[in-house]
Every structure is written in structure tokens, then in C-alpha cells.
Design goal:
This protein has 296 residues and is α/β, with parallel strands linked by helices. The chain is built from 13 helices and six strands. The protein starts with a strand and ends with a helix.
Length: 296
């Protein structure tokens, strides 16, 4: 039995296909969206309500509070345990989501160094005092190879690289290694014409706001403002800016649409680097049949 991974950009139609496949295969779905793991972040992450899951069991949804910091290493450990347990019971696992690192962490032989809150705090203080350029120059001196593969303005990744170097004494691997699967798997990615995807993203964001997205953000506002990783979810920082009176509602909507479109491009770039992925057109009338053929 192979692990099925269904990936692709946001709003491309992964959820609908995953449910059809899960019902057909009596499978259980494992979430691989880094933000759907948070409780209370439902509308903004397009989380499928329990009533619409067609009786399919979903894992790795609503496991953290917004104030908690997401940890890909912990996700990797937990998700691999879930997959092994399902395979032992002869239940088909389907890994579904658009968070590329989360997907790769489960399927590939990747190691994630531990963390040190003290070291991270030290570099974050330096970042605040001297700026990202200073930290990037430090990284260039300590680990030139990592610096070559990290954007000079990616403060979070620079801090992480410096932390790993000091913590482990080893270089920080900023690039993914060649594919080395942990489980037998079949990887399916969905795509569609860019103009259509952009239209779907625009419609989805407008629907989010119509469905009460602002109220959702208000309920968890304090946790979001004090959280480190949940605030990176698309739309949430924009709504917080609106709630703080910094921007108008229409601007929050426009900024969310633009950020989501950019994110979708990054998702596509990430997944296109994986030579093991089979790409399917999400608009195909026989999408389900094509997917089943790949699985079988």
C-alpha cells in the first residue's frame, strides 16, 4: 500500500478530489496545510467543516492553539506515526495540502535540527538592534553555502541558520536534498490555467470576508498577535491591520488576494522541483479517473 500525497496551490481543488478519493478507497486524510493545524482558524484557512467531510476521518487538524509555535520536526514525527499506524491497519493514508516543507518532511529522508530558545532570542535581539543586513553578513562569514541559498532579506531563515550553526556546529542546509522517499508513495499535484486560478483565489477571499472572516480573527486576536507562526497565515495579518485602524476593509481584502496569488506561485515553484510528482489538470472532466489510474 502506497501513501498518496495530493498537493498543489491554494484554491486549486485539492479538498474536493481528496474526499472523492478517500470515499472510494476507504482512506483517512492527513492534513498537510501548516495553518489548518490551528484551532479557531477555519474560514481564513478554508478548513473543511466536520459536517462536510463525508464521514472521512481527518488527522492533523485543530491540534494547536494560535499562540503555539508550529514545528515541522514535531509535525514530521507525529504524521509518520499516524501513517505507520494506518498502514498497519491496512487503511489507505492520503496526505493532502499545499505546505511543501510539511509534505517533504513526511515523505523524504529529511532531518530537522533541534531548537534553542536562548540562541534564537539572542539572534532576534541582534536582528532588532542591527538589522537583517548585519545578520546576513554574519551568516556569510560563518556558513557561506547557506548564505548563497537564503535571500538576504529572509530574516527568519537567517536567524534559524545562525541558530543551527551555533547549536549543532554543523552547516545549515538551506536546500532540500535529492528525493529519498521514506514510504512507497504516489504524488499527485493539481494545477490549472493561471487566470482561472487567480479568479478562484479572488472569489475565495471575497467569500471568506462574507462568511465572517473578520469576526473569526477578532475571537483569536490576542493569541494571533502573540503567536509566532500562526500570524503568517494568509489574510490574518491584513485583518489585524484593519482592526487596528491602519487600513480600510477593502484594502485588507485586496492585500489578502494579492498575497494569496503570490503564495500560490511559490507553491507551484516548490512542487515543480519534485521529479516524483505527477501533474494533473484540475479542470479535466476525468480528473478522478486519472488520479485513480495513477494510484493503481
Amino acid at each position: 500500500m502506497k501513501v498518496i500525497a495530493l498537493v498543489g496551490p491554494t484554491a486549486v481543488g485539492k479538498t474536493a478530489l481528496s474526499l472523492d478519493l478517500a470515499v472510494e478507497l476507504s482512506a483517512e486524510i492527513i492534513n498537510a496545510d501548516a495553518m489548518q493545524i490551528y484551532k479557531g482558524m477555519d474560514i481564513g484557512t478554508a478548513k473543511l467543516p466536520l459536517s462536510q467531510r463525508r464521514g472521512v476521518i481527518h488527522h492533523q487538524i485543530d491540534v494547536l492553539d494560535p499562540i503555539d509555535e508550529a514545528n515541522v520536526s514535531q509535525y514530521q514525527k507525529q504524521t509518520r506515526e499516524i501513517i505507520r499506524e494506518l498502514l498497519n491497519r491496512k487503511v489507505q493514508p492520503i496526505l493532502v495540502g499545499g505546505s511543501g516543507l510539511y509534505v517533504n518532511s513526511v515523505l523524504e529522508d529529511l532531518e530537522f535540527p533541534g531548537t534553542s530558545l536562548e540562541l534564537r532570542a539572542k539572534y532576534e535581539e541582534l536582528l532588532e538592534e542591527k538589522g537583517v543586513e548585519h545578520l546576513f553578513k554574519m551568516l556569510e562569514e560563518i556558513d557561506p553555502l547557506a548564505a548563497e541559498n537564503i535571500l538576504p532579506n529572509n530574516a527568519r531563515k537567517i536567524v534559524r541558520a545562525l541558530e543551527v550553526n551555533e547549536l549543532t556546529g554543523k552547516r545549515f542546509n538551506a536546500k532540500l536534498p535529492e528525493p529519498s522517499p521514506i514510504f512507497p508513495d504516489v504524488r499527485i499535484a493539481l494545477d490549472m490555467p493561471r487566470d482561472l486560478l487567480d479568479k478562484r483565489i479572488t472569489e475565495r477571499v471575497h467569500q471568506m470576508f462574507a462568511d465572517g472572516f473578520i469576526d473569526e480573527v477578532q475571537k483569536i486576536e490576542e493569541s494571533l498577535r502573540n503567536g509566532k507562526t500562526s500570524l503568517r497565515a494568509l489574510g490574518y495579518s491584513q485583518v489585524l491591520s484593519y482592526l487596528a485602524g491602519e487600513i480600510q476593509k477593502e484594502e485588507a481584502i485586496t492585500l489578502t488576494i494579492n498575497a494569496t496569488k503570490k503564495f500560490a506561485r511559490r507553491q507551484l515553484s516548490w512542487f515543480r522541483r519534485d521529479p516524483l510528482i505527477h501533474w494533473l489538470d484540475a479542470t479535466s472532466s476525468d480528473l478522478f479517473e486519472q488520479s485513480m489510474k495513477l494510484i493503481r
